[in-house]
User: Fold this.
Amino acid sequence: MQSVPAEYATHRITEKNPLDLPAQIDIGRGVPMPSFSKEDVVNWQLSKLAEVCQYVQKNSAFYAKQFQSLRCNSFVSQKEFATLPRTTADDLKEAPFKFLCTSQDDITRIVTLTTSGSTGKPKRLFFTQDELDETVEFYDHGMRCLVSTGDTVLALLPAPKPDSVGALLADGLHSLGAIPVLNQNPDDVAASLALFTKHTPDCVVGTAAHILALVKLWQHKGGTISPVKSVLICWDTSSQAVREYIEQAWKCRVHTHWGMTETSLGGAVSCVHNTGLHLRETNIYVEITDPETGLLLPDGERGEIVVTTLTRKGMPLIRYRTGDEGHIMTGTCPCGSPLRRLSPDIQRIMLPEDAPEWFRHITPSVIDGLFLSEPNFLAQQAQYRMAPNQLEITIDTRGTVSNSQTSYNELIRNLVSPLPDAPVVLCLRGRNNNTISTGFAKRSIRVIK
Ligand SMILES: [Zn+2]
Assistant:
């Protein structure tokens, strides 16, 4: 993107999708197209896909080998592109430097993600300064769906370095004229509430667990009328029940963002109509695919989200398997944007291959929903670990209001008992006491088949 009209400098939330303008400028190669269609987006993406494939064939050791016998000069259709092999998280873990297309001197930021995969190796992703700038630009335009110039935004996001996600979001907010307030330790819910009370934010950004914990603590302290007009849930998948709980407690619009480090920390966000998440179509190309075959599925059908980066030079990714399941919504959003929409019910699908059927039903979103009715728990995040013949679920609760060991066990039993071949559940004691705790309490639940 190169030029933004001057009248865009002061922003008010409108019915239009603010992600349209940067896409119109990109597709117009620097000059905003007066209008654009879905077909314009598809044609532009097909030409960029050919460009990026030729670029990686030439510059990345991994793709030089992977695409050795393939012709990537042009793609006549999305179906043709979908015949290319996919890239997996294991490929990235195995040899991250083989994906690098530039000199290491051109890399401004390296993100290392620890993962629970079989190799235990971390994932490494490399970003150039231009790519970080693109992310800031996406945050600037994406946040225009939620806030106007002059609004205050409380972001519950870590920002230990100048180019961490919280810091990039703050840069994006500055450039649209909003005022960011950061809680860099979002696990500290008391600190979030102190900032909330002091700054009375118009908007709150964070994971579902962190925002839910703030809402519950705010309610516990007697909060009734909130200043919040909009909320953006990011990073985690979230359940409809959690989104509705926040919406009702604060009487605000709840938007969702989908993205991951592999998509340069940004991917899709819902517009003011909140009917699905508009994709950042000129930076990433998203396919919904059959997880087995990798073939393209039609809009409306659920499958694995596979991503190709269209503009990255440092470490482009081609047909990267995200491990997230979702679908593209059919029809047109009331905002009229031709940018496709991901349905907000995105879920992780990467489970151990030999996991029993019931294991698929106990997702973090399900557990989130279950604890909504339990005022003793501020919020929680569940993680799974597979050991031989045994599954372990670790749930981090963000503090408890009263001693609820018994009800906690019962809740988990109620959750799993209707499932076929119900597992035996052992709850291991975590930190718990009779007072409200806003620290980071941990519990382990061991599920033995
Ligand atoms: Zn829209």
User: Anything to note?
Assistant: Residues 38-59 form the longest helix (22 residues). Residues 57 and 68 are 8 Å apart (CA to CA). The pocket of zinc ion is lined by residues 17, 271, 273, 278, 333, 335, 337 (CB under 6 Å).
